Amino acid sequence: MAEIWLNGELLPAESARISPMDRGLLLGDGLFETIAVRQGQARDVARHYARLAAGAALLRLTVPFDAAGMEAVLNTMIAANRLNEGGLRLTLTRGAGARGVLPPPGLAPTVLVTAFPPLPSGLPLSVIIATVRRDEHSPLSGVKSLNYLPSILARIEAAERGADDAILLNHAGRVAEASAGNVFLKLGGDWLTPPLAEGVLPGIRRARLLDSGLVREARLSLGDLKAGEGLCIGSVLALRPVAVLEGVAIATDADGIAALDAL
Asked: Residue 1 — pLDDT band, cuts 50, 70, 90?
């Protein structure tokens, strides 16, 4: 039976209860982090906490722990679920409150942590360009909020067109990101990823690759995607190569992607 962490308690998932007045449920008023677990260890906890704290500051949410406290919660979940490989999702909402858009003062935040096994490795992806756009002008593009509707619509569109995933352009028509991951393109021998100003979520794997020097930022067009020497979509959980873009086979670089994935 899976154990979850809810507001300071370890509970069987079947017995956990969240208030029907929780603003995360009713209004998407919250944030989340997905943390990879490798060999029984939560990866990049400091980076995840920094991103969560930055998003919480923007949304005026209370984070009820510091980085060490967050790591302790994650370690408790890893032990309780005997999780060696897989991931954890930490969800933070503003909490339960009276009906209305303006948050009432003094709400106690809701914190939920769940565990999940490794994702299947899968084959190279078939990807479309979504008709829904990423809003590079919104401050919310830089936070991992509970409102994932643009990504959901993009993924539905991909499924309806027989593809695995979708890449979203921004309102300027340039490449932003995929439905649930950052875009990495090999072009002219270099691995590139769009800068945050293009409406890109500051991904944890993205930051790690930029820090390593294996990837650098550059604005990318749809034409660049088609002309590239390799294309992949990455999150903390997986780095997946793209083999088909808009129904057309594109170049792949298995060795180059494997080098990125090893980091």
From this structure: low
Number of domains in the chain: 2
Helices (H), 82-172: 149-160
Provide the residue range defining the domain that includes 49.
3-116
Same domain, 90 and 155: no
Instruction: Among 61, 83, 116, give the residue marking a domain's end.
Output: 116
CA separation for the pair 93, 176 (Å, rounded): 26
Model pLDDT for residues 113-136, shown as the tens digit of each residue: 999 999 877 689 999 999 999 999
Coil, strand, or helix at residue 110? Answer: strand
Calpha distance 47→60 (Å, rounded): 20
Confirm if 185 and 191 have CB atoms less than 8 A apart. Answer: yes
Structural contact between residues 189 and 199, judged by C-beta atoms closer than 8 angstroms: no
Q: Which of 24, 145, 43 is nearest to 88 (CA)?
A: 43
| 58 and 150, same domain (yes or no) | no
Question: Which among 116, 142, 169 is the end of a domain?
Answer: 116
Rounded to whole angstroms, how far apart are CA atoms 34 and 56?
A: 16
CA 103 remoteness from chain centre: 26
Average pLDDT, stretch 33-43? 97
Q: Does residue 164 have a pLDDT over 60? A: yes
